[in-house]
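Standup notes
- DV: blocked on the single-chain target, sequence here:
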Amino acid sequence: MKIGTFTIAGASAVAFGFALAAPALFGACSSSSVPPAPAVAGGGACATEAGAFPPPNCDDTNESCPAPNPACPVAPCNASSACLAMADNTGKPTDDLRLRKLNVTAPSALAQHFIQAGVIDDGVNLDNTCGEQGTGSFSWLARFDTTNMKLTTGGAPPADDPFNAGYCFVNQNISGLPVAPVTVNMTQAADGSWASDVIPKLYVPIYINGDPNNVVVLPLTSAKVQSVMLSKDGNCIGTFNADGVSPPTSGGLCADQDPSSCERWLTNGALGGFITLKEANAVNVVTLGKSLCVLLTNGTSTADGGTQCATNPDGSVTAKGDFCSTTDSPGGCEDSYWLAAAFAASAAVINDGSTVAACNGSMAGGTDAGAD
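- DV (later): unblocked, structure below
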């Protein structure tokens, strides 16, 4: 059974074909993370080697874009907040946040501008609010308990009232996968940054076009966040760049600027983990008409008319990745791809999910978004 499907509004299979073959559209920057993350060709902005993390504030754009005139309206987000907070964590026992930017730096197939803008940014950007014109279908939540040194993270379903009722962690079986928040210990470095312990398995749901019955599950193994700088009030990771958007339309929405010149969000945290090619082969990319595995491997060794990665008699994928699941290190068995990203986040309401079927465990089964 396929886990789910990716789709991009308005994109064509021809455009996706270009994304498979296109060279990197950006330069790269170096990393001070451990292990080191030297730049690699074809990996997008601040590309990182397998097993490494990008700089938390990865941004190699020239920041030359002019300020929009008039400025982009950001209500009902907090305009006085450096990261346009959707809530206020001041005085609360935990700092609850929603990712507002996920800047993928590896693998190169997902770091390309077309995928970053058309799939990731479109899902993370809010649904026609705070000046953003995304779908809000990709909500990744993080709860930082800095007193008890715990991090809880996971995905959220579409929220009907994100600013008041807020979001909730998905707790649901989706296509046989136990999608639920995961809590791990975390530590604070001398510079004030936070890092989590390794998360053995994290299933991150993406709700296509905000449809609660159309879900993609991104399966991450041995995931970790590191170098995360929380603001003193607990409301921000990274900042909003008011110059990184186009002038507002008549509807008050502002498109992202060309990321090669200016980013809408400046990140201040990093994450990494790996995706096995076997699991990726079960994720169907609808617009491409092929599996995520085919996308990751640039169409090497395919089957079923090019829609799937070819497999060996034991079920393993014939094509090779850049990471090994059995040794949790680059190279080796090459049955996986390393995923790394820098991110920004802002305060958001996270409720207990008791009234939401996808969060209270009462929604049975789940769907695979039209996959077979």
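- Follow-up: Residues 235 and 347 are 5 Å apart (CA to CA).
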